[in-house]
Amino acid sequence: MDHSDEDTTITAIIDSAAQSIQDYTGLHFRGTTYLASLDYFYSAEFPYQITSVTSVTYLDRAGASQTLDASKYFVDTVRQPGRIKFKNTPDLQEDVYNAVQIAGTCGTNTPPAPIVHAVKMLAAHFYENRRAVIVGTISSEIPYGIKAIINPYRIISLK
Length: 159
Description:
Blueprint: H1 7-25, E1 32-38, E2 44-45, E3 50-59, E4 65-67, E5 73-76, E6 83-86, E7 100-106, H2 113-128, H3 144-150
Antiparallel strand pairs: 1-7, 2-6, 3-4, 3-7, 5-6
Helix pairs in contact: 1-2, 2-3
């Protein structure tokens, strides 16, 4: 591009391409904070690889928010998808949704080179094909060639 007329559009297209690949693979390309909710303490699996758990809070029997001691849970930051397991947990307030809140970070600021290339390819595809349906073509949200690049990075739960 020799002009800046479409800079906003191009930035939005790149962001959309990166988000599409993040959603498809379960990887996060930027350090991202998350807040996961559970109805009660149980071993849980995240839909992405986690880098840390900063806190686990819960509603005690009286309905007051408490922070769970880190010795009461184990976090797997190596396995994809990430997971957390609790032990010797206190009683929770009964009949309340989202009584347990898990806060932390996921993602990396250095995605693998094939992922960066796939984001560029998908952004180019989105730029060239700005309509949802193009008559006379067979298409998918993420073209097959790009899927071939990103499939090895896809986080799939074997549970």
